[in-house]
Design goal:
Strand content: 15-25%
Largest sheet: 3 strands, antiparallel
Shape: elongated
Number of strands: 3
Number of helices: 1
Number of domains: 2
Structural class: alpha+beta
Length: 75
């Protein structure tokens, strides 16, 4: 992990087309602005983890359905 110190208004460039900008700093919060192409998904970590969990559940459900359909047509 790379740890950098930045002040309000300063930024960080990731690759050629993603920029993080420190918008505001208060006692226990930092507001970060993100400039990135529209085709790049940006989520808070807790939301990203929820999406991943839902995708796993959906994948398991589709495997169960596929198995039941297979059994239906092979019997």
């Amino acid at each position: 992990m790379l740890a950098l110190s930045r002040k309000k208004g300063q930024g960080i460039i990731i690759g050629d087309n993603i920029e993080l900008v420190i918008l505001d700093i208060s006692k226990d919060q930092v507001r970060v602005g993100i400039n990135a192409p529209k085709n790049i998904s940006i989520h808070r970590k807790e939301i990203y983890l929820q999406i991943q969990e839902e995708n796993k559940k959906a994948n398991n459900t589709s495997d169960d359905v596929a198995s039941k359909l297979k059994d239906l047509f092979t019997n």
